[in-house]
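Recap slide: AMP-dependent synthetase, sequence and predicted structure.
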Amino acid sequence: MSTEIWPQPVLDLLATGGDRPVFCDGDRTVTAAQMSELVCRIAAGMRAAGAGPGVGVALRLGVTAEAFAAIIAAFAVGARVSGIRPDLTPAHLAHQLDDNPLLVDDAHVAQLATTAHPGTTLVAAGRPGDVARITWTSGSTGSPKGCAQTYASLSAAWVPYPDRWPPAIADLAPRLQRYLVFGSLSSQVMLEYAVLALTAGGTLIADHSPGFPGMINRHRATASVITVGKLHQLVQDQRTAPTDLISLRALLVSGSPLAPGRLAEALDVLGPVIYHGYGQTETGMITMVTPAEMLAAPTALASVGRPPAVTELSIRDADGRPATEGELFVRTPAQAAAYWNDPVETADVFVDGWVRTRDLARLDDDGYLHLLGRVRDVIIVHANLVYAGPIERVLAADPTIAEAYVVGLPDDVTGEAVHAYVVPAAGHTPDAARLRTLVTETLGAPSAPQTIQSIDRVPVAASGKPDKRALTHMTIR
């Protein structure tokens, strides 16, 4: 196995790619040689600004050739790289910048791109034990958690090495010839498949007005990442007003769980283009199932796929003993090592070289993984993890509310949606719109309840604890 330090495989691919197109943005096409030049210039500019091994670089970028070059350049100089989402609350932004990293936005990248080319070959400078990337969670727990991956971890990943590709990825990779990139290239999923596409000989296609199926047709795209909610919408649109999606060869479904019935419907309407997988920020991809597998076997259709050979799965009961059904633990060479500056949470999740997923699962006789539920009280909204507890605390602290309870339910637009139930304080009538704004300002938009329903009292289970399962039957639809 290669001992190259990330992102050396990408630097080499660009440096030797010549006139091959690697990034298209409207009428602009950037070749591998031109992208390599951009990466070298931006890396030189970052070094002049003080970036290097052990130095934090925060990237708040759109979807441009310069943005992609800046991400690769930040890794190339060996920095500790964080992607900054554009919709952060001021408190969350301050939290992510509290180590005083260099903040790079699109305007700054444009300046860095004018740096004189150093005239030397760019070699990855990351140190194996240094943190290479911090991927921040949504902050729905009150403060964002930063999943920290080392350069050794990123260098062990299979993405830029065809000889390491798991079978499902080897099946997927040739379909990424025109891979749509949108939202943020700093996204862990978007960047991972962008590098996979380039390694497979594909081109990154920028779209600044994302929306299915329009952007597929505009760009003759062959592949894209899609959330569960967007997939539901696309299937519905194709049933009512079909659009020619002849170029499409792969949709990579991410975020919320996808029910087998919905998955079967998507395959029926869109054809054999759905790749269904399961992963976490802490681990990267854990499993994947191909369209051919799902069409061939109902067992595969009801699963989230099989793991790569390098990924170990362990299912354990509440006492940590091996079990047929229980909490899933994962171990993979490319996993995160810790939560940044959070030793308590790190000790709870990163256990003896394993990552606790906090998801309940079982493996069938063919090696397919089936998800059964969650240990943690979490809701996945537009692929963002949203925790019920912090929302309940924000609502319960309001003087008009005596008690607050939050649950998640499937939603065709967002994948899952937050629903809140409140017991009003004596003499008060809660204002749902004001409370929704309060949650948004405190925890961010993904945490805002879709409905806030007043109830006289919360149902109680036999254990004497609030029965959230009973609450779900009270949700206004």
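The first strand starts at residue 21 and ends at 25.
Residues 379-472 form a domain with the GMP Synthetase; Chain A, domain 3 fold (CATH 3.30.300.30).
(End of recap.)
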